[in-house]
Structures are given as C-alpha cells and as structure tokens.
Amino acid sequence: MFVKRPIFLALVVWLALLARLLFLSKVHPVPVSDFHWYYTQGMAIANGQGYRYNGQPTAYFPIGYPLFLAGIFKLFGASWWPAVLANVILNSATAGLVYLVAEYLWSPAVGLISGVAMALYVPHIEWTSVICSEIIFSFLFLLTGYLWLRSDKQSWRLIVVSGIVLGITSIVRPVTLLFPAAYLIYALYRRFGFWASVRRFVVIVVIMLVTISPVTIRNYEAFHQVVLVSANGGVNLWQGNNPNANGTYFWPENPQLNPFLDYKTKAVAENPIAKHLAESYILHHPLHTIRMGFVKWHYFFKGVANVQFYTTRLSVPPVSAGFAAMIAKLSFWSYVLSYLLGALGLLFSVRDVIRGRNARIGILWLAILYYLALFFIFPAWSRMRAPMSPWVLVFVGLGVWQGLRAVSGRMRKGT
To answer: Does pTM top 0.85 for this prediction?
Structure first.
C-alpha cells in the first residue's frame, strides 16, 4: 500500500496547515533582497514581460521559482497572500512526505512522530511567510528521495518520475544537478548490480536534462552560449573561496575586494570568470579551503537569526517585541531539539544497518552528506539549512521511539 495509516498522514498535514496559517495570521513580512527579486520577477513573467533585468534577458537567478510564482499570480492575483499560501500547501505536503518516508522505513508510529516534528518545526513555519525558493525546493528535494526509496530493481516508472522531479528541482535550484551521483552510490550499495545501477543512473540524468532543456534552450537563444539553468553558480563559489572570504555571506561594496559588483547585469559573462577565480583559489590553497569548510559548517548550523530577520523583523504591520522574542526562542529550541533527536535517530539507524537491517536508509544518509558537502565549498548561513531539515527530521521519530524503548527496557531491568 502507498500509506499504511492514512489517518496519521492526514493528521500531520492538517496540523502543519493549521500551524502555518496561525503564523501567517500574525506575521506579514515585506519581501526584500532575493525575495523581492522572486516577487517582482514572478509578476513580470505573469504580465508577459519575460524574465528580464534592466530590460535585458537574465539568468542571474534560476527561473524555476519566479516561473512558479507567475503561475500562482496568473491564477490568483499578484500579491503576497497567494504566494505564501502556496508555501503553506507545499510545506504541509513536505510534512506529509516526512511522515511517508519514516513510515515506509520504520513504522506508522515512528512516521507520526517525525511528521508531527516537521509539522511543528518552527523555522519552517516561519519560512512559509517569506516569498522564498526554500519551501518549494525542500518539497521537491525530499520527493526525489522518497521516489528513489520506493523504487526497487524493477520499478522503472518511479525512476522516470524521479528524473522529472529532479529536473524541476534543479530549475528551482541547480545545486541538485549532481544529486544523481548519490542515487548511483545508493543503487550500488543496495546491490542492484553494477550495470543495472548505471542504467538507472543514466536514465535519471537524461530525463533530468530533458526536463531542464527548455530553460537551457531559452538561455542559449538569449545569450548565445550554454547556460544549463542559471549564471550565479560561479559567483556563489567565489564568495566562499577567495582571499577575503569569511565562510558566510560575502559581498563587500569595495570594488578592490569585489570585482563583481555589477554582476546582476553581467551574470552570464562574469560567471565563468568568477568560477575560474574560485577554482584557482581552491587549487592553490587546499589546506585553507578545508579549514574554511568547517567555518562554513559553523555558519550553516549557527542558530536561527536569519529567519527572524526576514519574518518578524520585517512584518507589516509590525509585531510586538514580546511576540518576536517568543517566536525567536521557540524557533531556536525547536531547531536544537529537532536536530538533537534527529542525530540520535541517525545513530540508531547506523546501528540497524550494521546489524544488517534496513539498508534503504542509505539514501537519507547520502542526501544529507551531499547537501553538507555543498556547503563545505559554498558560503553558508542558517537559511541554507532549510532544505536539509526535513531529511534530518525524518530521523526524529526513530530517535524518540528507540530512545523510549531503551529507557523502558532499563526501567524493567531495574525492577
């Protein structure tokens, strides 16, 4: 069956919907920075103006999320509410996916705990109020993993669907373009057979590339060169790998420190230059790059200040200082507790695999390792953590369930 306990799945999704709608009833952030770009570009595409900057075609940011917003705005009108209500639906569906993954791997009880943890995970509740790509990307990223998890040696249909989903995911954020390599490792680990694993890997890659091909063709027609999805990867890499990089967001206004200040208008031309500079720096400073990788992880896991700034601090009308402080505390402790329980569950999963049980868990490990590896190289801040959180929260149910069993067993022995 697709789901063992539909009532549990419905409970998780409705709880997630309720929590997010309650937050939206109080907090209405003004879109700034990247989020203002998404909002205005979504409106421009919806109005038939295309994806342009200063009157010229652009590939500065991936087109996926603005294109999604354009569809929402066409159907429901161009305003903040339709955009964030779409976020609510997608993020509630992500909570449902967390339940389905945990239920499939372990049990409905474990799935319910993990699903509720995601439904009540405060940082994601907050991000749903922001017109950001994190919400749709998180859903598509986890959906890809779930499809791989449900596929077996004969299930080509799910492999084909996963290629399509991964293509759409990459149009939203191209960081998943190399994610099929994780599936190849997983298939080999599951002993699907070498050539069978390679064939499935090739099918995923080909379908992913076919799915993103309309964007690539549009970019070629606009810029007369191959740009798979967007032209910001090189400068993002440079931000994290240059003599003055600090491991987190780095964009000084001094042209002597930042040669890419006009990057938005020259993204396609300057992207390969930035990429070359970053790769050269990594090649000539390998030890420093490794040290900075751990600094990037420090910023990746550091607190929840990023989401507080873009939500309660930018809300119009403003929220009270007391409400903002309460949300900040809830968000921080929700993050800390969820990740600690997720880490505990991950340790229990390692024990199970060592004992020869549930090798399917490997796809979750690989997804988390893949995402962490990205931000060992690219600059990081707490916002970047959002798409990995659902994968971690899948393990919360296992951590709680096995932890309770261990405590219960010790209590029985004590009596």
So the answer is: yes
